[in-house]
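INFO  loader      accepted 1 record
INFO  loader      residues=505
INFO  predictor   begin
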Amino acid sequence: MTTNADVAPDLAVKVRAFAERCHPLGVLLLLAVAVRLPLAFWPNINHPDEIFQYLEPAWRLLGHDGIVTWEWRDGIRSWFLPTLFAGPVVLGDRLAPGGAGAFIVPRAAVGLASLSIVVSAWFFGARVSRMHAIVAALVAAIWFEIVYFAPHTLSEPLTTALIAPAALLLTGDLSWKRLAVGGALLALAFVWRFQYAPAMAVFALGACWRQWRNAIPLVSGGLLVLALAAMVDVAYGVAPFEWLILNIEQNLLHDRASEFGVAPAMAYLYELLIIWSGATLLLLCALRRGWRHAPLLIVAAVVNIAFHSAIQHKEYRFIFLSVVLLIIAAALGSADWGQMLRARPAWRRWALPIIAGGWVLLSLGLADTTKLMQDNWMRGTGAARLAADLRADPELCGLALYVTSYHLLPGSERLARGEPLYAFHPEDPLATGRLPVLVKKNEQAFNRIIAPPSSASELPADFSQRSCASMGDDGIACIFARSGACDATSATPFEINDVLVRLNY
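INFO  predictor   done
INFO  writer      dumping tokens
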């Protein structure tokens, strides 16, 4: 007969044997996947670009209609990333038709791509000690800002997933192979987000500073990738890197981005202080020690913040690379404290759990303590609920947006299920001052409207209010519905892409 006393030692032996067989990096990667993949299903949106600059163009590449923003009309975007997203988009649409899968699978793919940050952090730490490797990889796996941005289909997290391993390859013991691969990764990162070029230059110069011949393999690897990017441009009928020249002309010379908001030079430092709050001093102390192990990470992070601080239009996502590099450097510095504890016999076995547990508690504590982070987790979820209601509506045959911005909406297919989409915007030159009249005049083209509840009296009388949801800073929006079909032959100048052209949005 087996007793509890027999089972307990046997279980302990099995646990130890399992732990010995499992490499810590593998366990940390599984942990990273476990905290990232569920967020692919959480329908929050950090910024409209993740839909309208990447997923919506990818959807159009597959032969569907979609919303076309001014960036694509003016040719300031490369088709490289939308082309890559087309694969996950079509896979997701086949797995879960109706728009949801085409949103989830690309997010899951981007989340998995962020695992390169975890691997890079491990090997940065492994240059010092096993404890440094474990702490650095753990922090990269669970730090709330990295986890938050991981599934968002934006250029910043994707580019950071390239720059982190490039930084690893271009520091430490260099070889021609490491230099060539590192140069290729930096070139690809440049194509995806050229605004990170100053930070990338820190690693390129660091690799070549003492031995300028290292520039040969580094540049060679980069040129191969740039040639591939040029071929992608040619395949879409545009001159190689024409989008880059137009982007610089529009955003850096004509400052077009400032139309979407400006902030003072110190805004990023202020935002970091808000998000890290009481942990800021602790992180700075850890960074001071981390300088000994990875100074170029800190230099590149500071250069990136300084460059983006000089640009008037600011968004926190722009310095995501800096956040990642600083957090990895701080994790490396904190592992020094763990080694100090380990040097004391009484604390030897508790050193790693204390440091690792401290990072976990710190990350959990900061993840939802500020209004800024709370808003980040919830932004776009209300629009997603309205979109889900519309996709499940069998009578939907046309949808209009009334005094409601498209920015937080999840793309035309996930919103209107491929049905015609119209917009009545107060700044539209054709509609200024006449919105109530025009929406009533054109109501036969649609049978569903998304509008603020305060606008109910301006809508046609046969539309009644249904479900409502928060649109964040834009207030509440509701679905208004009427019975009956739509007149597919009804010509109206308020199709959403026509409106965006007039608004230059």
